[in-house]
């Protein structure tokens, strides 16, 4: 089946510790807002899947969820 939809990126800000790792690994997908909590950028939709997976895997609180065509991507 061909890949038709961009990967959906969700972030639970209540769990974010503000490490900034996601933004350093995937700066086109995440940034820290002025309160030091990560936000998902619109350009996350065009960010390479492998980069998104690496960012999600390295999140110390695992608060990033990636969904591909309706199925959550298994990070580990
Ligand atoms: S890597 Fe995780 S905990 Fe760190 S800023 Fe990003 S979302 Fe927050």
Automatic annotation (TrEMBL):
Keywords: 3Fe-4S, Electron transport, Iron, Iron-sulfur, Metal-binding, Transport. The keyword Disulfide bond does not apply. Its cofactor is [3Fe-4S] cluster. Pfam families: Fer4_15 (PF13459). One of its GO terms (molecular function) is metal ion binding. This is Ferredoxin.
